[in-house]
């Protein structure tokens, strides 16, 4: 995880490598690209394992988002910090001792991943809940 520097979204909070998908890019390819952009290491998209999908409302902007979460234990190269203006550097943490603060959606998603829950919804207004 890395602490975000003073950015527009979640400043000062800890984050995993993440970002937006580009057209035309499937989710695993986007995750692999973002991993490389943010850590300098490379990962084969086929070495990424899907672990969670969260449909959430951004607590910052109010936009609706779908977040795909993948994990891997295989990458090439060293984990670095190619974007020092955005991140303070990458550190490893056990799920039982995650740093704070985390973006609210991420804290919830990581707990679902630890519990083995493949899908969740977060921060939807009460009147949009399923009956």
UniProtKB/TrEMBL annotation:
Coiled-coil stretches are: none
InterPro entries recorded for this chain? Answer: NUDIX_hydrolase-like_dom_sf, NUDIX_hydrolase_dom
Which cofactors? Mg(2+)
Taking every annotated instance into account, which residue ranges of this chain make up the domain Nudix hydrolase?
Answer: 1-115
User: SUPFAM superfamilies in the record, alphabetically?
Assistant: Nudix
Q: Which keywords describe this protein according to UniProt?
A: Hydrolase
- Provide the protein name: NUDIX domain-containing protein
